[in-house]
Amino acid sequence: MIGRLNHIAIAVPDLAAASAKYRDLLGAHVGQPQALPEHGVTVVFIDTGNTKVELLEPLGERSPIAAFLDKNPSGGMHHVCFEVPDILAAAASLKSGGARVLGDGTPSTGAHGRLVLFLHPKDFDGTLIELEEV
Asked: Going by CATH, does the domain composed of 5-133 fall within 3.10.50.30?
């Protein structure tokens, strides 16, 4: 069902500082910040050649990333994102297998303009999984 690893997301308390570390210390190509109010985050993507790293900063007080950073003030890995060819078929298959899709189960538009949904971390060994339709 899953395809390639699309990105690994890291929650950070300061997006500009984190972006500078990746750019200046690691020599990475760092994209421009992109506000995603519907997801409560501002993101920056770092192209690593074979995948991406997504840096997430809270956008607003109700951001799910703010709650994550309350528990992990220095930041840390938030989720991994896998590509799927048909997100609705993937969601139906996962639900029939007992996995929980977060929210109301309806895909939303992600940072790349593609449909995404998230799977409950308790169903995947403590890791939040994002699926992105490609």
From this structure: no
